[in-house]
Amino acid sequence: MAFTTLGGCGAQASVRLAPQNGILGSNSKPFAGIILKKPQQVGSLPLRARGSIFSSPRRLFSPKAAAPKSGDSIRIAVLGASGYTGAEIVRILANHPQFHIKVMTADRKAGEQFGSVFPHLITQDLPRLVAIKDADFSDVDAVFCCLPHGTTQEIIKSLPRHLKIVDLSADFRLRDINEYAEWYGHSHRAPELQGEAVYGLTELKRDDIRNARLVANPGCYPTSIQLPLVPLVKAKLIKLTNIIIDAKSGVSGAGRGAKEANLYTEIAEGIHAYGITSHRHVPEIEQGLTDAAESKVTISFTPHLMCMKRGMQSTVYVELASGVTPRDLYEHLKSTYENEEFVKLLHGSNVPCTSHVVGSNYCFMNVYEDRIPGRAIIISVIDNLVKGASGQALQNLNLMMGLPENMGLQYQPLFP
Ligand SMILES: NC(=O)C1=CN([C@@H]2O[C@H](COP(=O)(O)OP(=O)(O)OC[C@H]3O[C@@H](n4cnc5c(N)ncnc54)[C@H](OP(=O)(O)O)[C@@H]3O)[C@@H](O)[C@H]2O)C=CC1
Ligand SMILES: CC(=O)N[C@@H](CCC(=O)OP(=O)(O)O)C(=O)O
To answer: Where does the Semialdehyde dehydrogenase NAD-binding domain lie (predicted)?
Structure first.
């Protein structure tokens, strides 16, 4: 007998037929939230399940979001606005009804008009870029800090205490300042602030973020990896050993600064691994998984640079806990993220692709049964500049300001 899976995206989503134990044309077996044994069952599904490749309906507002304070204008400073994540904040905020940019800083580009640094945003009415030392924060309520790690701790320390801050750098992500020193090569420059920093993986830390003054926005790789793994570790569905992560990033992940390794000639038509066994996101990911497991978790993590502008894929190989099936992993993630607007479990044979999330704040993921018994493969994709940086930062600041978490973030991916 044939199985019928429901997909949802136009050409891709017509009813698919698969052999009894798998998806046609594929050795791996994705775990669809909706796998029907008989085609006639389709008619009995709730309408919202039809035409969606996701495990849950899209919600306008995230659960528990406070009511918007209509009309309030919240004044924003973007530090490092001449970089990629800074520009992405500016692009996204163009559609935010309550956040208005008052201050924008740069280093080498201080003094320039933003529209000449980023001509794609020339239509926006924005202040001139200034050096941080010349910025006036007295009329500012909140800050997106988009500066390189290492420079950020001292700068944040010098900012007035009335400001709410989302820091996109790695400077406040590691709770243990000795671990920070070990991985970042210098001692922490604002240890007194580290204690108040809240790690901003929005979907999993929402309640802490709401009350925070300083949020450490997660790294892009850690976002794409922890969103699937933390719930599975917490529920003890996977073993804590032999977690292997193969991850790939677009070049914008390295920032806008000129670097020989990021020249077109070095990157085009190729892929290369870097930071093998030593990437500074290892302790960040292990911190999140260790918290979830309540015992030390170690990982194998190898990032790769891809010849693409944006996008990030993490392919994660895990061993199942005793008695657990890959379907259990899928079902657990599905229920964890059921009411989430920005994290989506794909159905059936839909494979998460970076090109389907680029420009959006979505994380798409799916779970596959490995051909080796007792193992599963998880694929998770994000846009490194949006969910991996500026989009998640906006989710966090919305929460910190008591606004709906999705405010200004309700746009769809750019495709093709
Ligand atoms: N790119 C990504 O995908 C992600 C990045 N991040 C993190 O976000 C932060 C920003 O990244 P990104 O936008 O890519 O970086 P960029 O290199 O593109 O931008 C860096 C910004 O910081 C400014 N700057 C550099 N040095 C100093 C300094 N000493 N004092 C003051 N300002 C300075 C630059 O100004 P100017 O251009 O004028 O010199 C620029 O505005 C980094 O910590 C990064 O690790 C986090 C997640 C994902
Ligand atoms: C492609 C590339 O170079 N990516 C960056 C990660 C970007 C990011 O998330 O960096 P932070 O932890 O500093 O915020 C890297 O591997 O260092």
So the answer is: 75-212
Q: What single-letter amino acid sits at 165?
A: I
What's the ipTM? 0.98
Phi and psi of 149, rounded to 5°?
Answer: -65, 150
Residue 13: count of CB within 10 angstroms of its CB: 18
DSSP-derived secondary structure letter, 87: H
Is 392 within 8 Å of 217 (Cβ atoms)?
yes
pLDDT by residue for the chain (416 residues), tens digit each?
232 233 333 333 332 223 222 232 333 444 443 333 333 332 222 223 333 555 544 433 443 444 445 568 999 999 999 999 999 999 999 999 999 999 999 999 999 999 999 999 999 999 999 999 999 999 999 999 999 999 999 999 999 999 999 999 999 999 999 999 999 999 999 999 999 999 999 999 999 999 999 999 999 999 999 999 999 999 999 999 999 999 999 999 999 999 999 999 999 999 999 999 999 999 999 999 999 999 999 999 999 999 999 999 999 999 999 999 999 999 999 999 999 999 999 998 899 999 999 999 999 999 999 999 999 999 999 999 999 999 999 999 999 999 999 999 999 999 99
Please tell me the CATH superfamily of domain 74-219+389-400, with its number: NAD(P)-binding Rossmann-like Domain (3.40.50.720)
Q: How many residues does the chain have?
A: 416
Instruction: Check 145, 146, 220, 363 and give the catalytic one.
Output: 220
CA of 342 to the centre of ligand 1 (A): 25
Kindly state the greatest CA–CA separation across the chain: 71
Q: What residue segments make up the domains of the chain, in order of their start?
A: 3-49, 74-219+389-400, 221-384
Q: Is the CB of 170 under 6 A from ligand 2?
A: yes
- How many angstroms is it from 83 CA to the middle of ligand 1? 5
- Ligand 2 within 6 A of 220 CB? yes
Gap between the Cα atoms of 148 and 308, Å rounded? 22
Task: For domain 221-384, give the CATH number.
Answer: 3.30.360.10
What's the DSSP call for residue 24? T
Active site residue 145: no
